[in-house]
Structures
1.
Amino acid sequence: MKKLLSIALFIFLLVGCSSNARPVNNNEIKIVTTIFPITDLTQKVTGESVTQLLPDSGANAHTWEPTPQDIFLLEEADVFIYNGAGMEEWVEDVLDSLGNEELLVIEASKDVAKIDGHGHAHAGVDPHTWSSPKTAKTQLETIGQALMSEFEDKADDYKKNIEKTVTLFEELDKEYETALKDLPNRILVVQHEAYGYLTHDYGLQQIGIEGLVPTSEPDPARMVDIIKLVKEYDVKTIFFEENVSDRVAQTLANETGADTAVLNTLAFKNENNDDLIQMMRNNLQVLVEGLEQ
Ligand SMILES: [Zn+2]
């Protein structure tokens, strides 16, 4: 009996592997993602929930690493979607070690034109590729195209969802263009440099107090430089982040007389459960208020 079962399983596996396009219904597609923006963009394509590896609170997206349970999820998954561009440094090693040969792997940032992260980390590439409405739209399309070619029987539904979301990002992009183009102050002093694509796309400049990663303490010389710069360019607002101590930003604000405001890095879901588009809209309001004074 045991032998018969294993023969049946063997035949099932053979048949199961013989087709490239997977004829599964949506509920059976197991998609695993890494960080919130990838989760949100993927759900906008499929309309279904996914399994996200990083917790939405208490994690540092730059230093997080998967547990054995996370590896098990990847062994069982149909699709794995990560940001890439150096954001998840563990991905290459983990993918090499997996036995799951059927896994479709999508690097969401692969079609985004990369910008330099000023050499603080990640071989010069800025990994925060989701921060602008323009680059987030590109990532949506990359994820969408890959899922459409893999799951042909869902492609029509995915296509409609993608088109609808592309329109929303294009509207948001216009809002950003209009709201940001005439602001007198164009320098963003931020806690860590998570907004490179945003500032690049809309003609702003970011100065990171702590560089590209939020855990590093600024050295005293850098603090002196930033205080000088804040005074010289009459910067009115120091932007810090949700979920991270604002001690350094607060010190800087006290030293210079600038205000502080909270700008979201969009790497994690917020308390209101807003989607990425709403969070970007919130950020735009914070930016306008912080830069127009
Ligand atoms: Zn970051």
Note: The mean pLDDT is 88.
2.
Amino acid sequence: MFSIIDGDGCSGILKFCQKSKIKEDRGECLMPQKQYMARKKKEKCCHVTASTSAKKRLERFWSVFTKEDDVLICINADPDALACALAIKRLLRYRVKSMVIAHPNEIRRLNNVAMVERLKIPLERLGNVKVRNFAKKILVDSQPTHLPVFERIEFDAIIDHHPLTGKYESTFVDIRPEYGACSTMLGEYLRAGNMKPSAALATALFYAIKVDTQDFSKHSVLADGICFRYLFNVANRNLVKKFELADLRRSELKYFNVALSELTYSKGRFYSHLGNVRSPDILVNIADFLNHVDKIDWVLVSGIHKGKLVVIFRCDGYRKSAGKLAARIFSELGSAGGHKEAARAEVPLDNLSLGDKEFTTSALKRMATRHMK
Ligand SMILES: [Mn+2]
């Protein structure tokens, strides 16, 4: 069993860190110092060059498959997982008989739909494929413990960057939780195999790293930055912009009319209740839009979806906490919480004891004002 959990031996980037005298304790190291030192002692492998170690990893991955294999690549479809699946198709091209990418979840986010359509990513719903017809199964950007459907499948290879949540018996396991994006790991595999990604693949990987690291404002390692820079020249950045922008349906524009005519301003706060909405996603779009307005401290946008009042909170997160406010107002009535700058509450309408009355923007304002200074 080859297990590459948390970095196998001296990785290329680590070597890079040493070369450029970037101290590991500055957080750019690929594995905790203790583990790294332990491994260093055990394997005495600090002379492995950047390419050999990543190459070894790639060869071990390749050794799992034969030319007769029909391969199933399972993902929980989001940009990172989609990009990784494409990269695996590239890595295994000419090395296996066939490959199918399957996902259990519905792809609803328009940004993701745009990515799939414009890059023409061939996908199947996991429920529509016969898993046992595939000789080999790969799970990427996820772990079996993440979803019950994944738990039922015996994977031959797992490549992921989420925190390790189980002990997996797969032939090949490469889990590096410190990585900002799984696409960075796949980028390293491609480079190790001297495989220059096509514009489409590079665009997918580039977009994935942007999404998973939130434009490097979230946790990432030096490896993510290096991979990002490498892809920068090959990726189609206009296409990436297109994926990022596509988050509104034409049919949803009408909600902006409602939101603006309902808009109530008071003490640097915006309130707007939209009534029934087809999807709560539009409430997020509108709250984000209103949050662009200068000198506005708080934005509260609500709507009704499937018998629930959904409230979206936005603020700048500076000396404020949207999560805490959402909880103060709504936690006794339903579920509420979030981050400093963004939060959400969902309350069954029955809990609001409205009687015959409808929920309104002024009701939203009243409820919030009670809990705000
Ligand atoms: Mn990911």
Note: The two ends are 60 Å apart (CA to CA).
3.
Amino acid sequence: MKIGQSIRSHGIAVACGVLATAGLIGCDNPGVTSTPDDIEISETSGTVKVAAEKADKKDASETDSDQADSKDNKDSKMSEKEKEDSVDQKVKFVFDYNSLNAKAAYVILRKGTEPPGPGGYTMTKDAGTYICRQCNAALYKSEAKFESHCGWPSFDDEIDGAVKRQTDADGYRVEIICNNCGGHLGHVFEGENFTEKNTRHCVNSISMKFIPKGKPIPPKLVVDKQAAKEANQKRTATESEPVQQDKD
Ligand SMILES: [Zn+2]
């Protein structure tokens, strides 16, 4: 990877400036910096509650019946769109997300940009799922990936609910962040007519991790110290129950 070199040599600024001027791309502005505090805890905790409820429901249904009929019922209620978007991913409550190296932290936490080029996942065409490097949330399916020749991985659709859009710090572009952890992904552009969906998610490779089709997708990490504590206590209590019964 040449990120560090390019950062030091201001290669990003040159590349973005040239390509953006040519109207070819709209990449991140490397001049925009922010602190890890930009990871919005309040929004994340909102997600946590929903995720916790979903996880509880899923656990309950799995406990009540591990047969396929409940799954069939669920499937029959799902629309074609939902089926297309659904990704089998468990939720895990943790105290912290995956640790990031300096290059990943620069992009994901400080909203930096990788230099454009054929590296990373730009040219990847394998079938599979792209997950968030920081929290493992499934973000994009390979079916949505297309060749835009902009130098970054491009997708014309996200997995339902996985990506949040917000106005970029520059005031005009639309920044995309992981809806679970708030990590910076890149920007989204519309009206370029690359694909029928007319949308281009321009995503930094280092913000993602590719899971080839057939390989298990790791659980989505949800940072909730209270929930993690309660889950641990619950597990401890459950494990100690048989011992107490034996004593009686
Ligand atoms: Zn994430």
Note: The helical segments are 3-9, 11-21, 41-64, 69-77, 80-85, 102-108, 225-247.
4.
Amino acid sequence: MLSAPYLHQDRDDKLIWMLDSRGGYTVKSCSAAVAGFLLPCQTMNIPNVWKPIALPKVEFFTWLAVLDRLNTKEFLQHHGIITPVENVCCCCQTEEESLHHLLQHCQQVWRIWNHACVQLARINLYPS
Ligand SMILES: [Zn+2]
């Protein structure tokens, strides 16, 4: 049964990703949730990444992204390879470089993808 949320008038609202125990969005928790909603024959299975639907380097990139193992600067910083000062997005030079920033939020990356799509398919990815 659903219950009404308890409102705190003395606190600011904040977004919480309910599919992660720490309340923060992760690609891994989203992938697991999506896999849970799909039919068994459609279940996202890591080996399915290796079916020949894209170039091998694209499949490998996708596999690393699904596992949250891309060598972003955030990943390198977490493993002590670079310092926090060095963790700046290689594309926009304004934000920390994380998987989510590179794949979802970086304006420079969006410009590159939009340019590629315009050239290849004549579509525009920018939201209206
Ligand atoms: Zn960026």
Note: The mean pLDDT is 79.
